[in-house]
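User: Assemble these into one structure.

Assistant: Restating your components, then the assembled model:
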Amino acid sequence: MRFEALLGIDVGTSSCKALLLDPSSQVLATHSADYPVLNPHPGWSEQDPECWIAGAQAAVRGALSKCPGVKIIAIGLSGQMHGLTPLDKDHTVLRPAILWNDQRNADEVAAITEAAGGLESLLAQTNNPMLTGYTGGKIAWMRRHEPELYPRMRHALNPKDYLRLRLTGEVATEVSDASGTGLFDVRNRQWARPLIERLGIDPEILPPSHESDVITGRVSVEAAEAFGLEPGIPVVGGGGDAVIQTLGSGVIDPGDLQTTLGTAGILAAALDTPAVNPKGRVQVFCNIAPDRWHAMGVSLDGAGLLTWFQAIAGELADGAGNVTIEKLVERASKSPPGARGLVFLPYLSGGRCPHPDPHARGAFVGLTRRHGDADMVRSLLEGAVYGLRDMYDAMASLGLGRHRIVTSGGGTRSTLWRQMQADIFGCDVVTTDGAEAGGAMGAAMVAGIGVGIWADASTAARLRRTETRCSFNPELQETYTRMFTIYQSLYPLLRDSFTQLGHPGFDAGVAGA
Ligand SMILES: Nc1ncnc2c1ncn2[C@@H]1O[C@H](COP(=O)(O)OP(=O)(O)O)[C@@H](O)[C@H]1O
Ligand SMILES: O=C(CO)[C@@H](O)[C@H](O)COP(=O)(O)O
């Protein structure tokens, strides 16, 4: 017997996830497929777009195989934001995609800010500063550093929009991911054309932008065969993962806070106006709902801290594959709150919010002979949450409440990490069904809105169900308040040292040269 479902696909940084949702908003199946990130130079972060396609095909086929007889009625797309996927006129990928956590383009970002008339003027045009992670600076970097490739670039797509192209043959984006280029007029939900022209960027390389629930194309015959789908299925706009995850967590109306522990760490809230961005310290983007906006702080290292440590621990154990994430978290649970006075600064990939500093670095501060692996892993987990708390403080002028956090992403698999969020923020932390599937849940929901199953985002959001709850322990407030105060004091003290440690000679082992 055939039954209907919506398919959400999330092109994450570490894996592609697929999720099937039935029209009553029950999760039917999920499946994911991993792929690697490439770091060819210090501060560079790239991926081969073909790995997203192979990952999406494996994730979709895996999810479908768990639901024999399912008929997909619409597809929604989610993906890591800001990644520059440059294509030529025949849609051939010109170079590996430059990802959201890449730090190579600080010079171009400074030049763009100046050309725009300074930070205030840029904020007036886009509501956002140009950050090193954003697509606009990467386009400028290619123009300067890859002059043989740049003139061939006809399309600059975000990762999920490249998947859209491969699924439907259509070049398109939607307002949330367009916001993350730094070239989008977030208040008016359209490309910031005067800015784009002033920067000398050809506006034609930027895809047409739609609202997130608009149908942008249909699965082609060729893609149907490659993905195990039927041709003709409508594909809606979808959203950037950091934005669409709020819908997937049921957070679409102003009030709740939402966090995500994926590769990145994200603290977000829905807004009903395009709020003034406080000194450009946070990200204010278009939300999935056409009458909503989205404020967030992003740390470039969230749950990705654990996979970094896992790789190191695996090397020390002679490459033995038994250092699992679960084992690391289990070790962390043996260390007390505050990790015996050990703090970890989570800036392995540089800083974004509240410190937009490509030179920022990670640091264990306070090590003694009493500290062991359990304390080190615990301080990593706590450092990721202090990072979220620091973003909350940076967003103070937005007047966001803190009565409850809804959390999502791969890191939410750990009860310890969810409890830490509750204890460090001093509020309840809940998960909703499908929380681990990242943006794939929100993508399936927006697909349903696009084909009329739900009237709007608020209606769809109300159908999410709470699955877990951690209440905060008041007895830990003093420890965590003290530790967080120390955490906040450290970056300003270490900033100059971080910059000096970034001397390229140190990486090459010839700092005197
Ligand atoms: N059991 C677990 N406990 C805590 N964290 C986990 C667990 N399993 C996976 N993770 C973390 O989840 C992260 C991946 O989350 P995910 O939401 O899939 O990220 P992305 O969308 O960026 O690919 C990894 O960096 C890993 O550290
Ligand atoms: O840079 C941002 C949002 O501004 C990140 O959220 C990326 O979009 C990557 O997300 P994950 O792969 O970690 O979910």
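Residues 12-13, 80-82, 100, 133, 180, 240-242, 262-264, 266, 283, 298, 438 surround 5-O-phosphono-D-xylulose (ligand 2) (CB under 6 Å).
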